[in-house]
Write a structure and sequence with these properties.
Length: 357
């Protein structure tokens, strides 16, 4: 197992390098880089940095001086290109970026006076809260429900729960989030949960117990909105996994020996059926952590990684774009290795080295 893990760790390097090469190459063909964004802002063609706190101080001052109205001198544009490093060829910029990343230097945002690492750490708690709680709740509900559906396959319980699951899966996350706001956040009916944010304005004045209660009060609706699609997928995945195992010969043999049904299900079937469910854990967590976070964060006014990535893409903030891409790509690859380790933990009979041989 040690040799397998070592090979997987070594594969991270070329995989991550490929990800960075492809995305860096694509960015070179995208119109409207950071220089063009600054020029557009100075010339009054649009404030692409609206909503990014603390950004564009120098360019705003230049606009107030009327530089844009008189036309931008070439020397000014050349100075901007030198400041951002665009006076160098793309290959040299890419190699410098990789060298800095190897030293864990991810640079500083073009439009915020903060390093990329500090910016990610600042936004991380919101996304971790959404991803962690959504994934845990999905697994806590889906696994028992999926097992129950498998045991009672074809019953009225299985039928109506399948209908409810299909409806839940068909509802778009953003639409369900808006529905929750309308119903429970003072939209048109009940004012039970707060409308926005992760904490109350008087957070610093609250006691420890009140802070915990306030946190869960704010996170309830975003987590529910994030969980609905993952909950449906996991439930059906668990049910199908159990059905496949229940029909196998070893289950019939265990029942013929007089073992209790609970012992058969949780002592024999559970270990084998859970392999595919556990294998899906990284995808579920990463999916909730990254993919669904932008819409949920926007609707509930949460300042997390989803909005950070969107704002960086709009503003062409390349240090933030590539820094977060590198960090999250590395996290995703490491989580994949952890998934294999969870396989072995659940079923020690699995040997990845023999499978590769």
């Amino acid at each position: 197992m040690g040799a397998y893990i070592l090979r997987r760790l070594l594969l991270i390097i070329p995989t991550l390098l490929g990800i960075m090469i492809v995305n860096f190459a694509l960015v070179q063909f995208v119109p409207g880089g950071p220089i063009e964004q600054i020029i557009a802002q100075i010339e009054g063609e649009g404030d692409v940095f609206a909503g990014i706190a603390g950004g564009g101080g120098e360019t705003q001052a230049a606009a107030e001086d009327g530089v844009g109205r008189r036309g931008l001198p070439p020397e000014f544009i050349a100075e901007l290109e030198k400041e951002f490093g665009f006076d160098k060829p793309p290959l040299e910029r890419f190699l410098n970026m990789l060298w800095n990343y190897m030293r864990l230097d991810f640079g500083e945002s073009y439009f915020r006076s903060i390093s990329v690492i500090d910016l990610v750490l600042e936004k991380m708690p919101v996304s971790i809260s959404l991803g962690l709680w959504s994934t845990l709740i999905a697994y806590i509900i889906s696994i028992p429900l999926g097992i129950r559906k498998a045991v009672r396959d074809g019953s009225s319980f299985d039928t109506w729960t399948s209908g409810a699951i299909i409806v839940a899966y068909a509802i778009p996350g953003f639409l369900f989030a808006i529905l929750l706001l309308v119903l429970f956040a003072g939209g048109s009916y009940w004012q039970i949960f707060p409308l926005r944010g992760l904490t109350s304005d008087n957070w610093d004045e609250l006691s420890l117990l009140d802070k915990v209660a306030d946190y869960f009060w704010h996170i309830t609706l975003p987590v529910v909105a994030s969980t609905i699609s993952a909950f449906a997928t996991l439930t059906l995945l668990t049910k199908n996994s159990f059905l496949d195992e229940i029909k196998k010969q070893y289950v019939m043999t265990a029942r013929a020996k007089g073992l209790k049904e609970s012992r058969v299900l949780y002592g024999h079937v559970f270990r084998n059926a859970m392999l595919i469910v556990i294998a899906g854990f990284p995808a579920v967590f990463i999916g909730v952590f990254f993919s669904g976070s932008l819409i949920i964060e926007t609707i509930f006014s949460l300042d997390g990684l989803g909005r950070l990535g969107f704002e960086a893409a709009v503003a062409r903030d390349y240090p933030v774009i590539f820094g977060t891409l590198f960090i999250f790509g590395l996290i995703g690859l490491v989580v994949g290795i952890l998934s294999d380790l969870m396989y072995v933990l659940v079923d020690p009979r699995i040997d990845f080295e023999k499978r590769e041989g």
